Amino acid sequence: MKISVLESGSWGTALAAVLARNGHEVTLHSLHSARSALLAQKHENPKLPGVILPEELRFTDGFGGVETAGAVFVVTPSVAVRQTAHALRGLVRDDAVIVSAAKGIEKGSSLRMSEVIAQETGGRERIVALSGPSHAEEVGRGIPTGLVSASENTAAAETVQDLLMSGVLRVYTSTDSLGVELCGALKNIIAICAGISFGLGFGDNTSAMLMTRGLSEMTALGEALGGSRDTFAGLAGVGDLIVTCTSPHSRNRTAGMYIGEGMPVAEALEKVGAVVEGYYATQSALELSARAGVEMPIAEALGAVLFEGKSPREATLELMTRAKKGED
Question: What is this structure's pTM?
Answer without folding.
Answer: 0.96
